[in-house]
Design goal:
The complex is a heterodimer.
Chain A (H helix, E strand, L loop, with lengths): L19 E5 L5 E6 L5 E9 L5 H10 L9 H10 L3 E7 L2 E9 L3 H14 L4 H18 L3 H14 L11 H5 L3 H11 L6 E6 L3 H12 L22 E5 L5 E9 L8 H13 L4 H9 L3 E11 L2 E11 L3 H17 L4 H18 L3 H13 L5 H12 L2 H11 L6 E6 L1 H9 L4 E3 L3
Parallel strand pairs in A: 2-6, 7-11, 7-12
Antiparallel strand pairs in A: 1-2, 3-5, 3-6, 4-5, 8-10, 8-11, 9-10
Helix pairs in contact in A: 1-7, 3-8, 9-12, 9-14, 9-15, 10-11, 11-15, 11-16, 12-14
Chain B lengths: L14 E4 L5 E6 L5 E8 L13 H8 L11 H7 L4 E6 L4 E8 L3 H13 L5 H20 L12 H4 L3 H4 L6 H5 L3 H11 L5 E7 L3 H12 L22 E7 L6 E7 L7 H15 L5 H9 L5 E6 L13 E7 L6 H18 L5 H17 L2 H15 L4 H10 L3 H9 L6 E8 L4
Parallel strand pairs in B: 2-6, 7-11
Antiparallel strand pairs in B: 1-2, 3-5, 3-6, 4-5, 8-10, 8-11, 9-10
Helix pairs in contact in B: 3-9, 10-16, 11-12, 12-16, 13-15
Classes of the chains: A alpha+beta, B alpha+beta.
GO molecular function, one term (chain A): metal ion binding
Protein name (chain A): Putative M16-family peptidase
Pfam families (chain A): Peptidase_M16 (PF00675), Peptidase_M16_C (PF05193)
Chain lengths: 439, 435
């Protein structure tokens, strides 16, 4: 066998950002259109600010938005969309109502017409709403049996306390009490174009697409009340919160720390420090607790951005019998990223990963649409990708070290563990103070 | 009804060649974004596992990432990600794939990494034990600790099929996984991971001549080894209804899945394709037959899905496979009644045929999904590799939207007429956590 050496990388060409056409319509809707024509489709994302909307009605509204207009039943709507290869669905997070979908590029006009019908004339018929209400109750019931959901519920409560972000899923009973009239009221008040952003990406002429959007959505009018959410609270340190799930054959380990926004001067260094700790597969955390010790199938850490604040979160599902050792190694790795500068090669590898995956993320219509829509929600445009790339390219070991010390110190982290409490409490309490959840 | 929309197609170029050692190669250049996708697929999957070694194909997939001739453990991950890329692998019934997506400057590195492990992974006791632990955690995350884990892909095959190859648990029992040896792994590699049993494919931003030279450089000296003979996994279809239930101790609500045998996806593709369209006619969106009836009208189901192949890889599976329908039910839901309603609706389709516009709109939506899949470089590299491996026809990926749009109403009805209760297998989830 011949000796083989690793081929060098060919340096990346300059970052090429597609042209973003943008227009703010007279009704307050911002339309952003981007051409990527590799496949004859168009992706659509409509982001409507929904901060402080009442949780249960807003959640059901997102599920029932397409149940009918005065002209079309839910089935007509679905069929008409399907006829142009289209599909639209709505989702909710604490900041926004997001309508997402795609269609054959030739079907853009029709898709926007159907969307406009729903935005201006959704009727929430009693029968259909009742069906969607029961489906939503069932799906929440199923979520409540999933460890990843349960531990997130506990973590959000632990991080945000009494802030509106603390509870992001309504209870089945809260959903059961929502009536169609409440949905119509909420729709009239909040499903408004002022402050909303529509992103269209695909095999389109951007200016023409905006013209169509202007013509079709021009009749959607009105402004929403102020939905500004107060800044998120400081995360209070305290004992590890242990949530009992009797019979669980794994423990769900979650850690959280205060995060920083995408435009913070430290963000690039923080991004790289996070990657080195646990933000990608070749991170210290994964190499330690998966590839060295076999405690988990996967661990991952991310920065989660909401409009009113950002948090850093780490997540791993670990075998019940090694829950304590998994926490030990996690705290060790956090301590290491916070106390020592990273290696030169480690930094370069993480840097290249950060730069490369930005390019991968914008290489498809759906990736571009998602990115443009998320950015728009924070007042940014694709140009921010270039600024962020340049900042990542320039980050030094010293800056990453400083960011690790400032933002990833284990002494400031809160920890939530969900699992079979009787089997894991003693493992955890030898490492840190533990408090059992009473909820 | 709107006028029928024209179904577009993609025209991704396809170049094919075979190296002297028997490795088949597919190239599909497209310079529209500065990224490449690389996929290597081996013609071995869950169905080829020996008895007593359930889960071995998947465990072996993990071992392929644990070092090779010129690479230490962890090096593969670091080199791909350090080139700005992402990677993964997956184990299917009929194939195992490995893939990377990277900025185009990382192409040669990805080829080097794939060639190195094609020559031989580092199969050590330590790595084997480590990955057995990792796979056990994967099974806990995806099956044991989660409601509806393995439903229906692990639960329905043993009801539907009789032979070990088709019926066994592809994730594997802990007992089988724990007793696996390095010798087993070496034997599996020797038998199935021959370059004559593999396809390499590259899609995205590259020059064909340059890529061809790189491929020669890195794969050209992989020792030639022929493919093993491909077994026939065919089974006689069901002649009477088979129905089973199982208790899922953490599931809060009932669920049911049903499967019917379908024509051979490879040798009888013309007969197979209408079933793919039928599955969508029945279940795609609120205007589809079964969603309208079961979810919207009867409220006897809360969610419904229909597709071909147990792993959602309808154009990358060999015979035998199935058309599957699965439904999640409301509290106290009656799975038997849901199955009976499905039978009724199939009868109605056979008797009354399709409604005006029903087929056109289903085909339009299928085209969108097919085209969206190919916008991603891996959405071309992966299926093209498998289509070459199983059919010698990677260009089929470009043709699928058109072929789907040409399926006639008569063929849909004929397909529906074969989905009889007496050739149906079903599995029902009894919720153990019902309140």
């Amino acid at each position: 066998m011949s000796v083989k050496t690793l081929p060098d990388l060919v340096p990346d060409a300059d970052l090429h950002l597609p042209h973003e056409a943008e227009r703010r319509l007279s009704n307050g809707l911002t339309v952003i259109a981007i051409r990527r024509s590799a496949v004859p489709l168009v992706e659509l994302r409509l982001r409507i600010p929904f901060g402080r909307a009442p949780l249960a009605p807003a959640t059901l509204l997102s599920q029932a938005l397409f149940t009918g207009t005065s002209a079309l039943s839910s089935i007509d709507l679905a069929a008409e969309l399907q006829a142009v290869g289209g599909s639209l669905a709505a989702g909710l997070d604490p900041d926004r109502l997001l309508i997402s979908g795609n269609a054959l590029a030739d079907g853009l006009d029709r898709t926007l017409e159907l969307l406009a019908g729903v935005l201006t004339d959704a009727t929430y018929p009693a029968e259909e709403v009742a069906t969607e209400r029961e489906r939503l109750v069932d799906s929440i019931q199923v979520a409540l049996s999933q460890p990843a959901h349960l531990v997130r519920v506990a973590l959000l409560k632990r991080i945000y306390d009494t802030h509106p972000y603390a509870v992001q899923t309504p209870t089945p009973d809260e959903i059961r009490s929502v009536e169609p009239a409440g949905l119509r009221e909420l729709h009239a008040e909040r499903v408004r174009p002022a402050g909303a952003t529509l992103v269209l990406v695909g095999d389109i002429d951007p200016d023409q697409a905006i013209d169509v959007a202007e013509k079709v959505l021009g009749g959607w009018t009105g402004s929403a009340p102020d939905g500004v959410i107060p800044a998120t609270p400081e995360i209070r340190t305290g004992p590890l919160l242990l949530v009992d799930r009797p019979g669980s054959v794994q423990s769900s380990l979650r850690l959280a720390l205060p995060g920083i926004t995408r435009t913070d001067p430290d963000y690039a260094a923080f991004t790289v420090a996070n990657l080195i700790f646990g933000g990608y597969f070749s991170s210290r955390w994964v190499e330690n607790i998966r590839e060295d010790k076999g405690y988990t199938y996967g661990s991952h850490s991310v920065v989660e951005h909401f409009v009113a604040g950002s948090t850093w979160q780490g997540a791993a599902e670990v075998a019940t019998e090694v829950t304590g050792p998994s926490l030990l190694e996690t705290l060790y790795e956090l301590g290491r990223i916070a106390s020592l500068p990273p290696g030169e090669e480690e930094l370069e590898q993480a840097r290249r990963y950060a730069l490369g995956t930005l390019r991968l993320g914008m290489s498809t219509q759906s990736g571009l649409a998602g990115l443009a829509s998320v950015y728009a929600g924070f007042g940014l445009r694709l140009e921010h990708l270039r600024e962020h790339s340049e900042a990542i390219a320039a980050v030094t070991r010293e800056e990453v070290f400083a960011a690790g010390a400032r933002y990833l110190a284990p002494s400031r982290a809160v920890t939530v563990v969900l699992g079979d409490a009787d089997k894991i409490e003693s493992q955890l309490s030898v490492l840190t103070a533990v408090e059992r959840s009473t909820e | 009804m709107a006028p029928r929309i024209k179904i577009p197609a993609t025209k991704y170029p396809v170049e094919r060649f075979t190296l002297g050692n028997g490795l088949r190669v597919v190239l599909s250049p497209d310079r529209s974004a500065p990224v490449v996708g690389v996929a290597v697929v081996y013609d071995v999957g869950i169905r080829s596992e020996p008895e007593g070694r359930t889960g071995f194909a998947h465990l072996f997939e993990h071992l392929m990432f644990q070092g090779s001739a010129n690479l230490e453990k962890l090096a593969h991950f670091r080199h791909v990600q350090g080139a700005g890329g992402t990677f993964n692998g997956s184990t299917h019934l009929d194939y195992t794939d490995y893939y990377e997506e990277l900025p185009s400057g990382g192409l040669e590195r990805a080829l080097f990494l794939e060639a190195d492990r094609m020559r031989g992974p580092r199969l050590t006791e330590e790595n084997l034990r480590n990955q057995v632990d990792v796979v056990k955690e994967e099974i806990r995350v995806n099956v044991l600790n989660r409601p509806y884990g393995g439903f229906p892909w692990l639960k329905l095959p043993p009801v539907m099929f009789d032979t070990f190859a088709n019926a066994h648990d592809g994730y594997g029992s802990f007992e089988d996984l724990e007793s696996a040896t390095v010798e087993d792994a070496q034997g599996f590699f020797d038998r199935y991971y021959a370059c004559g049993n593999a396809v390499l494919s590259v899609a995205g931003d590259f020059d064909v001549a340059e890529a061809t030279a790189m491929i020669e450089r890195h794969f050209g000296d992989v020792p030639a080894r022929p493919a093993p003979e491909l077994p026939d996994f065919a089974e006689a279809g069901l002649t009477e209804e088979k129905r089973e239930t199982y208790l899922d101790r953490i599931a809060p609500l009932p669920a049911v899945a049903a499967g019917w045998g379908v024509p051979d996806p490879i040798s009888d593709f013309d007969a197979y394709l209408p079933y793919a369209v039928l599955a969508e006619v029945l279940t795609d969106g609120d205007a589809s037959r079964l969603v309208e009836r079961l979810v919207q009208r009867d409220r006897s189901a809360t969610n419904l899905g229909g597709y071909l192949g147990f792993m959602g890889d309808e154009y990358q599976v060999r015979n035998p496979t199935a058309l599957l329908l699965q439904a999640h039910l409301p509290p106290g839901g009656d799975a038997g009644k849901v199955l009976q309603t499905i039978d009724e609706e199939l009868d109605r389709l056979v008797t009354d045929g399709l409604k005006a516009g029903e087929l056109d709109r289903t085909q339009a939506r299928m085209a969108t999904r097919l085209l969206q899949g190919t916008d991603d470089v891996l959405g071309r590299a992966q299926p093209m590799a498998v289509l070459e491996l199983q059919r010698g026809r990677p260009e089929l990926l470009n043709e699928l939207p058109k072929l789907v749009s040409e399926v006639t109403a008569e063929k849909i009805v004929a397909a529906a007429s074969t989905l009889r209760p007496e050739c149906r297998a079903s599995i029902e989830v009894i919720p153990g956590a019902a309140q």
